[in-house]
Amino acid sequence: EVQLVESGGGLVQPGRSLRLSCTTSGFTFVHYAMSWVRQAPGKGLEWVGYIRSKAYGGTPEYAASVNGRFTISRDDSTSIVYLQMNSLRTEDTALYYCSRAYMEGYFDYWGQGTLVTVSS
Amino acid sequence: EIVLTQSPGTLSLSPGERATLSCRASQSVYNNYLAWYQQKPGQAPSLLIYGASSRATGIPDRFSGSGSGTDFTLTISRLEPEDFAVYYCHQYGGSPWTFGQGTKVEIK
Q1: For residues B35 and B27, is the Cβ–Cβ distance under 8 A?
Q2: Which residues in B lie closer than 8 A to residue A35 (C-beta atoms)?
Q3: Closest residue in B to A50 (Cα–Cα)
Q4: A24: exposed, middle or buried (C-beta count within 10 Å: 0-12, 13-18, 19+)?
Q5: Which residues from A are below 8 Å from B96, CB to CB?
Q6: Cα separation of A96 and B54, whole Å?
């Protein structure tokens, strides 16, 4: 059974940093791209970024709203994907979902999300 | 960036009725790499359709996707009580990937 479990969310002050983790199981992690999607309270889905599988170079792509502040990385030895968030802003407050990007594209599995609240 | 515009914002229908949801892209979506997701309150989204028209595993055949280029449609042929939810389209044909703003299907 495919499982994605996010962790690391919490309350953080503006300008500070936070690192989210997504621990996966039930599939061959190295073969898949992984993505982060967020949802502000009461709002729609926003793609944050993704990291390609090793076969496609393992490189990341980001939304313009987080480019230069957020970094996605992966550890294929432990099947974990990370989202390092720096210089956090109040508008980064959201539920952050980890998802598996099948064929380097659509999201076929999702975690339950971890809540990040940026507030002073 | 490809902007996806979903319409209508809210669709008020009764169980058994047909629902037609639209997703229009600001430019052509490469290879029709367009997916649809369903999200119920308090839950993560779940995949319904990928590649514009292919149903994901386990999705009932009352859900169908169609369209190409810039105009895509999700049709629910006969609404079941569990289908009342928010639906999002998502293009993965070009970076940055983007989502539509969502269509809420509510009980009339």
Answers
A1: no
A2: 97
A3: B97
A4: buried
A5: 47, 61-64
A6: 27
pLDDT at A103: 83
Tokens of B86: 């928010």
pLDDT at B19: 98
Decide if A41 contacts A109 (C-beta within 8 A): no
Report chain A residues whose CB lies below 8 A from the CB of B90.
45, 47, 106-107
User: Is the pLDDT score of B93 beyond 90?
Assistant: yes
pLDDT digit string, tens, across residues B3-49: 999 999 999 999 999 999 999 999 999 999 999 999 999 999 999 99
Count of CB atoms situated within 10 Å of the CB of A68: 9
The torsion region of residue A113 among left (phi > 0), alpha (psi -120 to 50) and beta comes to left
Q: Which of residues 91-110 of A touch B (CB under 8 A)?
A: 97, 101-102, 105-108, 110
Q: Is A64 an interface residue toward B (CB < 8 Å)?
A: yes
Report residue A65 CA to chain centroid gap.
14
Structure tokens at B76: 């629910």
